[in-house]
Amino acid sequence: MMHQKPNRGKLASNNLYDALERDRKLTCNQVRALLEDFVAAEQAGVEVDSDLRYSLLLEHLDDCDECMSIYQELSEAADLFDSERLEYNNAPESRVPNFFPPQLPSYILRLMNQHPRQVAIHLPVQHPVEWVGKLGSKHREATIFSGLLSELPEQPKLQVSARPYDDRYVSLTVQVQNKTGPQAWRFDLRAGEFQGSQTSDQNGSATFQKIDLAALDALEITYHPVDAQAEDAA
Amino acid sequence: MAEAGRRESLRTVWQRLSTAYEWKLLTASQIEQLFDRAENIILELDFPTGNMRKLAEEGIRRAYSEQLYRALLDRKQQAAAELWQIFRRLGLRYFSNEQTAEEIAQEGVLRVLRNLYMLQNPQSLFSWAFRIFYSLRKERLVQQKNEDSNTSYAHEAQEERSLEVEYADPIDLIERIDQLQIDNQLLDALDKTLTNKLERYVILRIVALGDAPREVARDLNLPLHRTRLAKSRALKRLRENTAFMHLLREITGLAEFTQGVSYDASETE
After folding, report:
1. What's the ipTM?
2. Domain range B173-252, CATH class
3. In chain B, what residues touch A126 (CB-CB under 8 Å)?
4. Residue B148, exposed/middle/buried by CB under 10 A (0-12, 13-18, 19+)?
5. pTM for the complete prediction?
6. Where in chain B is the domain with CATH 1.10.10?
């Protein structure tokens, strides 16, 4: 039964006006970070509409189609975990695809040129990529490859690592370190649609910005010494 | 006492969910650790004293998300298979044929694997996967639309219709509105602007009359989130109608110029 409330004739117009004219006080990113907890609270029976902690979020939902759409999705999917309304209709195991095929070779190396030495490396990217939160979530790092290229006489150490660039892209750092000989390189990198060239610092390290790691199956790295004479001398 | 009850709820919920979804990643001792973790997660929520079963479901869902996240990084096929089953269930809700559901499930898991590094909080793996699913669903609908515009239109029309359902219990709203003496001019304008009956009903009850959305959803026999959606859509329609907004400003005494304005619902921005 509904409560009988006092006469609110004028109040009704004012309520409606307030609902239509208020400004958004939270950004979409702020709201999206709160939505999972909000839906959980709502499902747990919390009276979110009368709880001041949720009022700004609710105002935002009234006014933002995209956040409302995410709220709808989370709410609709939430009942998959309603333990009193479960359906037992899994597909037989035989129909589940194999998501982790045998490990690919860790790299394929080609010597493009002896003098000056020019090396091309095909580096498969194994998904999922594991990130390590060394310095908090914004400063996580993932090692794509770390190892010695033992086929080459100077046995350089190759390291490729990724860091977040923004919400979608990463920065890739490529480093080649020889035990002896040149340490500065000219790198060419192809990563999906990305193509770029960089000269390394004296530690043999160069960074490429804004790469869509999720879209990558492999990296193509080519390098040669910046100073070819130095290599000959070595 | 509350702790014992919570533990018991966690066991019950785990038993049901792990059986229904064939969760097999954990050993018996790891399951006990999962309960410990789920309890901590519940206590960290802003609302640790809500409905016990729902809290247990939330705790188990988030704690198991963490386990699944770890197992995916370890490239365990069982983890990917469990996620695939979840995607498939969602797929079957929206697409009647199994093949489409399973194609979407496969694409969903691959997308999770490729983008896993973007997930900031492993507890949110399931929620994040849901969003990936709905994004795939939209893509599939667009694809269908390109292949057969009629099919897709039919689906969209069905979605729209689902928001136009007649309310199950038509409480005598007109009588209530009469009692509240809402300005007739406003009611008339709402009728003209909001042609969708559900939207009009929801806006009157929640916004104008101040009834709790949960109460309105119950009266309508609709999920709460669908009720909120109806309200949000109604507000958008009203906001976009300049003539309605002008009228509302007049009624509330906020219009700067009120003379010579007549309401015409067809006049939109």
Report:
1. 0.81
2. mainly alpha
3. 75
4. exposed
5. 0.78
6. 173-252
